[in-house]
Amino acid sequence: MKNAIPQRYAIPHRYATRPGLYFTEDGGADAVVRSETASQVWLCVYEPVDQPTAFFNDAIRVFEGSPVPLIRDMYSHPACTRIIESMYVRETMFRMEGPNYGLWYVHLPKAWDGMRYAYRVDGAWDPDKGVRFNPYKLLLDPYGKGIDGRMELDPAAFSYQCEITPDGKVQGSAFGPMSTVDALGKMPVSVAIDDRDETKHDADPSHPHVPWSKTVLYELHVKGFTANAPWLPEELRGTYAGLAHPITLAYLQGLGVTSIELLPIQAKQDELFLQERGRHNYWGYSTLSYFSPEPSYATKSAQAKGAGAVREEVINMVRALHEAGFEVIMDVVYNHTCEGGVEGPTVCWRGLDAIAYYRREKDNPGRLIDTTGCGNTFDFTNTHVVTFAVDSLRYWAKRIGIDGFRFDLAATLGRLDGNFTKHHPFLYALRSDLLLGNLKLIMEPWDLGPAGWRTGEFGMPFSEWNDRFRDSARRFWLADTKLGASPSVGMQEMATRLCGSADLFATEPGRGCASSVNYVVSHDGFTLTDLTRYERKHNEANGEDNRDGTDNNHSNNFGVEGPSNSPLIERRRERAAMNLLGTLLLSLGTPMIMAGDEFGNTQYGNNNPYAQDNEITWLNWDWLYQTRKTQQMRRLERISRLIALRKSLDLYHQEEFFTRLTQIGLFRPSSRVQWYLPDGTTPTDQDWFDGSRRSFVMRLRSKKYDDIRDILIVINGSGEDMRFRLPSDYGWACEWSSGLAIGVEPAQGGRVKRTDKPNDQDLNWTTIVDDRDGITDLVRQVQSQLAAQAKLDAPADAERTGGHRVNTIPARGNATSGTEDPHVLIAARHRPGGNATDDAISALTSAMDVRDGGMQHIGGAGDVDKDVTERNDAATSAAPDAAEDAQNMSEASANDDPGVWTVPALTINVMCQIQ
Asked: Where is this region: Disordered (predicted)?
């Protein structure tokens, strides 16, 4: 037979063989790749010219300048090789056999760990029908476990003829002629990793397997979390190894979270429009390889050693987190790829088999269906796409040790013929897989397609991000507390969210509140601090004229846009942040915190910093090494205490009130959750439907045979201190209060308890480190660096702004002329330095110890001048008037009743049963 492949390169047809590169015992490897519609596929191996080739006796040498086109030689010989002197590389191309059941095969006579390779594919060129085969383009192995190199913005990256304009834009038609520019040297290639050793993980620490009832998720970015970490040597900052550092792990343990949810760490590639603007995708939701880790998060030394060392650093990070007791959850993006729309580059799937991999318009197959907003959508109606995704997930779980996955835009993964169904084959594949079905599987339950909001509809065993919880909590504590705002969230809505959102997740037997991943902040949107500082997004740095990012933030700036030098405003902001975190951590369900919110991190009002790989998104840790205790340290202590309290109570795994009866309208009262109004009575139907009711008590009851204390979650959503009659069957003690952020907490009788005012001179942990301690030198070094930058023990104003260098701005808020620090400029633009109202507030509040609560109105900071004036007048009054006499008599009466507690205005509080 003409052009037949010699027997030494052929392998038997193997039905349903998985694609990939498999090392064999003869020192070679089997390469298998899927392309159902190609006419020919080649496996290409790359070697340095100054080393002997492994294929000297197997491949025919072809030369540059030959009258015979390279493509013809590739078809004519089972294996041919060429040397590209300008790149000092040898490319050997093996013609593959196929398609057999859609797969192409070849056996390499020699293969090695670290071998660089790619595919070339030929076939029809008909863009109007979605067919874009081009043998001049290098294609990554979809199953490749390592990656080397990056795409350059060059005509070689595109399958169609185009050019790059002087201003960096791609000019050409995706429906025009095929490009004949060779992509070698302009595109990344795959790297083979030999992982046949089945015993290599035998000594690994066991997976923590944290039960859902104890899980506290912590979302972080590998680079951003440690890029500024002062405890790390420079070479470990922003790396996998930095996250695995003992001090990093100790910090996470001290906070108390249990499961680290990593933003995408699969290899990524910047979207075309970002490359055209010279920007980078920081978040990583633009996947280049589903089996390869992102190399840029590895240490420089690991990157220099190659893909195997990068992967080993990831494995060691996971091992270290496991050893410290943490689960590792990976954010994964299977809804689309980095190739974008038809105008995008060709790096893998488009060149292998665009018709099979991507969803297409039925009446116009040359155009892609896009339910992701990213240009393309993986076709999960294709069994082989489902298999590809499952194989990738199993690889990360089995070989890397990942404990669970969070699926980005998961509604897209469950669409059949365009419509979502929880019975989708991919979702069944996850459920039924013996490995994946036992991991934590978390869905982002929406996309941009028709009827894209699907919260609560995925079914067992999936958990889902609960955006209803996010919005309700924000509206209750922020938007509804503005001056003149009409309450939009009342007791019924808040009670539903506190109980795990039965209206969304009571969909089938066994599906309980743990399925609701509660959050108030994620990577996508304002930070917690920015929710209390900004009414509007400030995304100017993104270069999209502030058009990107949502305008629906439900935020409250408490009267001043951006950082404020008013102690009153900052105290109210801190209380609001504690209310949100308190609601999150005291609700039934699975809480998720975003990294940095525990100490007041800010992104300067940017609610869409997806392309900000800089100080805007990198966490600032200067506060941690101050000599005096900062506001950030105090917030961290309050949140750590609340997490510890939650984990100590075995009350967060209840399903009695979470039954299928809710589907037919029978809401059976739970014996484990009870509700009270402030007067101690049980709410009636009229109370539940009264949207103005904002103060109530939620009781979580232990079973009689359990030696566990009941707790009361007491919410005062009004703008005044309020008296609550607590259940009389037990005594109660306040364990935690968001009011501590402003120096008050609930107390028996007619007045709230005022706690000691935080002392700015309180010493931080750095001052009590023993000279013999190994960390002493680090503390001294970091503090010396902070002192040199005038950031050691920064003034209180700087603390209130989150410690992000705002203290370097002059008092009147005018940025220093000629400064090159973009974050100083950002802060200066948003800081109200010369605002007369802000200065007047500061003058008033600096002369007196302003007490929040009591006379406060529901309007919050909007009526701050009136509020401060009333308190000042009351404080300077010569004698109490009749109203004060009546108040004192009422307080005296309340003091005689131990069941009455006064709860500070706008607070959430935990009362624990006294044994």
From this structure: 538-567, 792-819, 859-900
Name residues whose C-beta falls within 8 Å of residue 316's C-beta, 6 or more positions apart in sequence.
Answer: 240, 241, 244
For tokens 């340095």, the residue is 48
Give the model's pLDDT for residue 911: 95
Burial 804-842 (b: 16+ CB within 10 A, else e): bbbbbbeeebebeeeeeeebbbbbbebbbbebeebbebb
Q: What is the torsional sign of CA 725, 726, 730, 732?
A: negative
CB 904 within 8 A of CB 737: yes
- Amino acid making up residue 532: T
CA dist 849 and 744 (Å) reads: 13
Residue ranges and CATH numbers for the domains of the chain are 20-192 (2.60.40.10)
Q: Decide if 766 contacts 777 (C-beta within 8 A).
A: no
Instruction: Please tell me the distance from the alpha carbon of residue 758 to that of residue 761, in angstroms, as a whole number.
Output: 9
pTM value? 0.88
Calpha distance 553→539 (Å, rounded): 13
pLDDT, position 65: 76
Question: Residue 466 — φ and ψ, nearest 5°?
Answer: -105, 95
The amino acid that residue 122 corresponds to is D
Residue by residue, DSSP assigns 780-797 as HHHHHHHHHTT-TT--HH
Active-site residue identified among 148, 331, 408, 745: 408
What value does the mean pLDDT take over residues 528-540? 97
User: Where would I find the H helices in 227-360?
Assistant: 240-243, 246-255, 272-276, 300-305, 307-323, 349-357
Is 760's pLDDT higher than 90? no
Return the bridge partners of 103, or none: 34, 100
Q: Rounded to whole angstroms, how far apart are CA atoms 444 and 383? A: 22
Tell me the mean pLDDT in the region 59-80. Answer: 89
Report the percentage of the chain scoring pLDDT > 90. 71
3-state secondary structure 192-225: CCCCCCCCCCCCCCCCCCCCHHHCCEEEECHHHH
Q: Which two tokens stand for residue 213?
A: 């009832």
CA distances from 62 to 58, 65, 74, 84, 669 (A): 13, 9, 9, 11, 80
Q: Which two tokens stand for residue 639?
A: 């949140």
Per-residue tokens: 912: 């624990």
Average pLDDT over the chain reads 86
Known catalytic residue at 408 = yes
Residue 431 · residue 394 · CB < 8 Å: no
Q: Could you tell me which residue, 511 or 354, shows the higher pLDDT? A: 354
DSSP readout, 479-537?
A: GGGSTTPPP---HHHHHHHHTT-HHHH-SSTT--GGGEEE-S--SSS--HHHHTT-SS-
- The catalytically annotated residue of 97, 444, 721, 745 is 444
Q: Which of 330, 324, 215, 321 is nearest to 262 (CA)?
A: 330
600: left (phi over 0), alpha (psi -120 to 50) or beta: left
Tell me how long the chain is: 915
d(CA 229, CA 147): 28
CA dihedral 272, 276, 281, 287 (to 10 degrees): 20
